[in-house]
Write a structure and sequence with these properties.
Order of helices and strands: EHEHEHEHEEHEEHEHEEEEE
Mean pLDDT: 93
Structural class: alpha/beta
Low-confidence stretches: none
Largest sheet: 7 strands, mixed
Number of strands: 14
């Protein structure tokens, strides 16, 4: 793959997109969120930067304004954004010759906002998408350059869906870079705000399982929060149980919902409305978030 001579700055935390961008463009600087010790994405971004001798900056939201002159002096053609923590001010996104574009993991204008891959699965959507759009002053409202729909399969998790979305994102980004390099003027269309939906960041309480809802909805919540996300949780014997992986089986049962109806080795079978959950990966913790061993028996109930 021949690298295109288009000078870019990358803002974000998606190492897969950054890796592809480095292959197709001249990435001269990288901005990512302030260091989070358990953020594997930031570690991988820094490794890529080191491998390719690219400067990395991690300003907080307030300090971001201090880099306006630095970016102006770089004389870049394009800013590419993917998963950046902060809203990029106009003083920055208006600097490059071809402005700034954002890669958003939904088919805009649906699912603007944050954690939208998780929300799409939780809401039982059958498809989502990926959109590359110009950045403007608002959140995910800029004119759309290119987008593609991505199906959500019943056994998809946030991890597999994320991989699929960003694989498509890399292809779309390639096409956008190619069009810019060829001298083409990028055509972009306005979003229909009347069709927009917006989602706020998830909170810990959003991850708690309600055993009174349909079993498919519980399954959707669990598969939306698999590792590296924090997992869906409930309580058993006054201890917190974090469920990280489960399968849903549509079987007619006459049991209370949220009750353990079978245990096979380390696998829990839990009765839910409309069927059962086969829980293959879970962790039990105490009030200090320390892992604990708990004797679990058939008939125990989750709350």
């Amino acid at each position: 793959m021949q690298k295109k001579q288009i000078k870019t700055i990358f803002f974000g935390n998606n190492h897969l997109v950054l890796d592809h961008l480095i292959k197709i463009a001249d990435v001269v600087s990288i901005f990512c969120r302030p260091q989070d010790t358990d953020d594997d994405n930031i570690f991988k971004i820094k490794e890529l930067a080191k491998e390719h001798s690219i400067s990395v900056y991690q300003p907080n939201k307030k300090d971001l304004y201090n880099y306006v002159s630095y970016i102006e002096n770089l004389d870049v053609d394009l800013i590419v954004v993917c998963g950046y923590k902060y809203i990029i001010p106009e003083e920055i996104f208006d600097i490059p010759k071809y402005k700034a574009i954002n890669i958003h993991p939904s088919y805009l204008p649906a699912y603007r906002g944050q954690h939208v891959i998780n929300w799409a699965i939780i809401n039982g959507e059958k498809e989502t998408g990926v959109t590359i759009h110009y950045i403007d002053k608002d959140i995910d409202t800029g004119n759309v350059i290119v987008q593609k729909k991505v199906p959500i399969l019943f056994d998809d998790t946030s991890l597999t869906l994320s991989d699929n979305i960003y694989s498509e994102a890399c292809k779309l980004l390639q096409s956008v870079i190619d069009r810019i390099v060829s001298g083409e003027t990028l055509q972009a269309k306005k979003q229909n705000n009347a069709e927009s939906t917006y989602f706020k960041p998830r909170t810990p309480e959003d991850s708690r399982i309600d055993w009174n809802i349909d079993g498919v909805e519980i399954y959707n919540l669990i598969r939306a929060l698999v590792k590296p996300w924090p997992g869906a949780y409930s309580y058993i014997k006054d201890k917190k149980i974090i469920i990280r992986d489960a399968k849903y089986e549509n079987i007619l049962l006459n049991c209370e919902h949220g009750k353990i109806i079978n245990i096979c080795d380390s696998t829990l079978i839990i009765s839910v409305k409309g069927g059962q959950l086969v829980v293959n990966d879970y962790t039990i913790i105490d009030e200090n978030d320390n892992m604990v061993h708990l004797s679990i028996e058939i008939g125990n109930e989750l709350e």
